[in-house]
Structures
1.
Amino acid sequence: DAMVIQNPRYQVTQFGKPVTLSCSQTLNHNVMYWYQQKSSQAPKLLFHYYDKDFNNEADTPDNFQSRRPNTSFCFLDIRSPGLGDAAMYLCATSRSAGANVLTFGAGSRLTVL
Amino acid sequence: GENVEQHPSTLSVQEGDSAVIKCTYSDSASNYFPWYKQELGKRPQLIIDIRSNVGEKKDQRIAVTLNKTAKHFSLHITETQPEDSAVYFCAASSYGGSQGNLIFGKGTKLSVKP
């Protein structure tokens, strides 16, 4: 009954080699978020989609891009991963923005060699 | 923008004792304050939340209190059990529209010793 599914769970890439992480949801939620979580740190919001509207956080590097082709799917593209991009990437959804419960996926752990 | 401070960063208690984790926020427009529990290697999961029209909320052994004037909120866990061991994150957001995203505190690693 997984509601927010992330693939792959583990991704190993080489320095500079593009990576795409995917997220799908069965909740029909309007909002989909991407968070970056480094070891022993809080999740840090990279960007989110409210329906088709893309909202980028001011300090999200240009190296990170996102696509949401439909309500159910959202992708995180890392164009040229650096060693500092190694982290857990968490996808989350909510019915609407603001004061709504986030449902997280299990995460995709990215290793950069 | 919003800034959320969380203390302590680590907390160790004996089984059966109470644990208290405190957070402060900076944006007076924030009106939603959830707490997430993240076990090692797992996804964050909501354990309790409170909205600004309420001062306290309880769910079995877990309670959250909110002081809007002082802009702080706290998580209280009573009768702690080893399975309560995890990292707990507080968060804050303001309601409505396409903005008001959750900003997380840095987390508290709670260890409950049997």
Note: Chain A touches chain B through 22 residues (CB under 8 Å).
2.
Amino acid sequence: NAGVTQTPKFQVLKTGQSMTLQCAQDMNHEYMSWYRQDPGMGLRLIHYSVGAGITDQGEVPNGYNVSRSTTEDFPLRLLSAAPSQTSVYFCASRRTSGRPDTQYFGPGTRLTVL
Amino acid sequence: AQSVTQPDIHITVSEGASLELRCNYSYGATPYLFWYVQSPGQGLQLLLKYFSGDTLVQGIKGFEAEFKRSQSSFNLRKPSVHWSDAAEYFCAVGGATGANNLFFGTGTRLTVIP
């Protein structure tokens, strides 16, 4: 049982490039989410999903896309990277969207956009 | 709108001393409250959570927190701090509505001195 896994751990992009951050969980969790963490700002919700085929926007969705074709995977796509997207990205999952139960976090992806 | 305030950006305590980290929340309904800890370069780990019932909750690593509805607070405490407790601590609030997304405070960094 690997929990929540994220790849890559580190990434450097140039402005305008696109990329996908991968997130997978093997706990059969219904709910998955993406956060970004910036100094002095805590964690802010980018997008979330309450089940396969269902996604919605969080607090800071601009510049990011998500999809949920399977229960296990929830990739985050940066369409055209900007320096303001330099951040640490965390994926999280929990068993159900029906109540705010324990969320399990991945180890994070540190992204630098030059 | 929901929000979480952690008024202390950085706290320094001596090893063996007691610790209290403050958390105030704003939420329109019954709040579900969490404390997470993040060690350097790591993801977030749940310390404890409050859903209902006894307002004093016990968590892992000897931490406890007390829910005070009248003060909209959920402060984290530990009677005797260990050097390994040095980390960043995040308070989060969620609720039993919608997708029950978690909203995080900006975090408190704890330094432990010998």
Note: The mean pLDDT of chain A is 94.
